[in-house]
Amino acid sequence: MAACLLGAALVLLTAGATWVRVRVAATTADGQEAAAAPLAASLTGSDLAPALAGLGLVGLAGVVAIAATRRLGRVVVGALVVLAGVAIAVVAGRLAADPLPAVRAASQVRDLVPGATADLRDLRRTFAPWLATCAGVLLALGGLLVALRGHTWSALSARYRTPAARPVDAWEAIDRGDDPT
């Protein structure tokens, strides 16, 4: 559960971090650079892959569900956490390896140069996509451990004792010669 919690928390933290910094220059239809100076844009993981934050929340909810479920339910939750972790690792890994297509598709870049074509320059990556990829792998491994071994773990108890017996029961115990205290 600790691996799942750490993986989900890292995904949520890195989804809001800057993944790419880029300068965008406007070009006209004939390929000439517009007169305006290039504008800078910083894109977060959520900008490039909006599903990351949602998948991180699935992993976080999975941690709670692992604690609340028993045997078969825990195995099913573990499998869902594995799927969320693999999806995070694939999406973040793909963006870590080549962020250019996602950067071109990002609305922040398109909004910088309305009515013209965006020419990307000086693309700088951060370490955040690699960290998100590792967090997805950690989440998947934690979910796999839960799916394989979770059915043997103890569950939360469903039985609760009442704090005190009913007064009538106490009097009956005294009549039998028992001390109800």
What's the arrangement of strands in the largest beta sheet?
A: 2-1-3
Strand content: 5-15%
Please identify the structural class as seen in this structure: alpha+beta
Tally of separate helices: 8
Estimate the helix proportion, in percent. Answer: 55-70%
CATH architecture: Up-down Bundle
Kindly describe this structure:
This protein has helices at 2-15, 45-48, 51-68, 71-97, 100-105, 107-112, 128-149, 167-176; strands at 18-27, 39-44, 117-125. The protein is of the alpha+beta class and 181 residues long. A three-stranded antiparallel β-sheet has the order 2-1-3. Helix 3 packs antiparallel against helix 4 and helix 4 runs antiparallel to helix 7 (128-149). It is elongated, with a radius of gyration of 27 Å. 33% of the residues are buried.
Short description:
With 181 residues, this protein is of the alpha+beta class.
Secondary structure: elements and pairs:
Layout: H1 2-15, E1 18-27, E2 39-44, H2 45-48, H3 51-68, H4 71-97, H5 100-105, H6 107-112, E3 117-125, H7 128-149, H8 167-176
Quick tags:
alpha+beta; Butyryl-CoA Dehydrogenase, subunit A, domain 3; three-stranded antiparallel β-sheet
